[in-house]
Amino acid sequence: MTHEEYKKRAFAKNPALKAEYDALEPEYQLMTAVIDARAKSNLTQKELAERVGTSQANISKLERGELNPSVAFLKKFAAACDMKLNITFQ
């Protein structure tokens, strides 16, 4: 059984689980975006932390979804990756 098949079955059995999963989607998107940005920039967590002016532990927490970053922090993160921060609402 694939991960997607497992999720589909679990969500069908438990609509509350699906609602909670959907509610966390922005956090998952942020985690994926920061990991992808760092990887595309070929930076280690330590190198990125030095560029941002924070600790490697904070970069790790951000990538695990354990840090609730400010927009100012995300701007520094984007600049450190030679990228631009773009926030959208849909």
Provide a descriptive summary of the structure in words.
There is one protein chain. The protein is built from six helices and no strands. With 90 residues, it is mostly helical. The longest helix has 16 residues, at 25-40. It is elongated. The model has no long low-confidence stretch (mean pLDDT 95).
Blueprint of the fold:
Elements: H1 3-13, H2 15-23, H3 25-40, H4 45-52, H5 56-64, H6 71-80
Which terms summarize this structure?
single chain; 90 residues; mainly alpha
Q: Mean pLDDT, as a whole number? A: 95
What is the H-and-E element order?
Answer: HHHHHH
Radius of gyration: 16 Å
Class by SSE composition = mainly alpha
Number of E-state strands: 0
How many helical elements? 6
The helix fraction, in percent, is over 70%
Strand content: under 5%
Biggest sheet descriptor: none
Distance between the termini: 32 Å
Shape: elongated
Low-pLDDT ranges:
none
Short description:
The chain starts with a helix and ends in a 10-residue tail after the last helix. The mean pLDDT is 95.
